[in-house]
Amino acid sequence: MKPRPVVRPALLLLLVSLLSRAEPVLIRAGRLVDPATGTVATGQQILVEGAIIRAVGPSVAAPPGTQVLDLSDRTVLPGLIDAHTHLCLTMATQGGKGLNELLFRLLASTVLETNARRALVGAMNARDMLQSGFTTVRDVGNAGNYADTDLRRAIEEGMVPGPTVINAGRIITPLGGQFHGLQPERPDLGEPEYLYADTPEQMREAVRKNVLFGARVIKIVVDDQPYLYSVDDVKVLIAESARAGLKVAAHAGTEAGTRVAAEAGVASIEHAYTASTEVLQLMKKKNVYLVGTDFTRSAAEAMGMADYHQKVVDRLKRARAVGVSIAYGTDIIFPVPGETRGTLSIAGIESFQEAGFTPAEILRTMTTSAAKLLGVDGQRGAIRPGMAADIVAVPGDPLADASVLRRVSFVMKDGKVIRR
Predict the structure, then answer these.
(1) How many whole angstroms separate alpha carbon 413 and alpha carbon 380?
(2) pLDDT, tens digit, 9 for 90 and up, residues 235-269
(3) Are residues 303 and 387 in the same domain?
(4) How far apart are CA 383 and CA 392, in angstroms?
């Protein structure tokens, strides 16, 4: 009996590497946009090997066997970023009007849906976001019992298509979370949607739970109850998050809550609907990003909050004038017939256009600025050697008309062609 051949571990790893290595891809770009500078280079080539951009220039030497993708009639730019998503949450739009009614529908949606369904909803929304050109998102909670962590891992393992996900796990809040009208007979209704934390010890424990169960950013709610977190409270949460290398995103809708979050020095403030110019100046001083979730008119009407549209447009105008750092974030949580989560999210550029942002400024909020906030600016948000091959293409010139971003015709994520 002949002895079996021995396959050494090092040789096995080499064979697996050779078999799994994707062939190089050369993209011929008619126009290549650099969002950081707002400039365009024509006749460029992009060499992609595996998940990484290896070379960019007018004439790139490609190895034998390189696949060529001709986008010479398109404008090529980095994959887009949405810094405020809720992939695992979809709410019905039927119901009354106003914020209280919206929060009631949030309670109903989260109580009635299982964690398994939340993850499946997340997979659908992640696929649709990617198809619309969003190759990175920050998912800021409302995912049940860490369905967002399961979704992120499934995407990373190639089980389902989706963008790079920076997820928040469970949202940390004072008692009650964002729910109003809870009854003492059912104090558990807020679990597991939120992590209640009212003392410094509870706050540190809540951050540690999120880190343990896979969060990549910490989301807190400052002001959805009559009792707000204090500046000192938020500083405790920031310090504990920093120990794990994570940033803090703070939900704040009121003037008082926005001031608290800004004074404490969070990484970003979500919404800040009624922020005064004075508080916006404080945000600039503290280097706090605004992620305004700037609902379009139609989106605000669908949510029963039509009055919020003009508020966010006005606040956007003032934030731009002050010079606050702004990252694009949409907060889309509802379905619209004929639309996907991706098409609804990309429509948010309308509010920026109304607020007077130039196309170049809009694109920066969706790439350069958002990548810096999310801490991925060394890997994503630009097309240059060494960066992840997250690439999209559109017809027309997005630096002349940002609306063309709503017509993404090509998507590459980590070197894999998703839409062509």
Answers:
(1) 11
(2) 999 999 999 999 999 999 999 999 999 999 999 99
(3) no
(4) 10
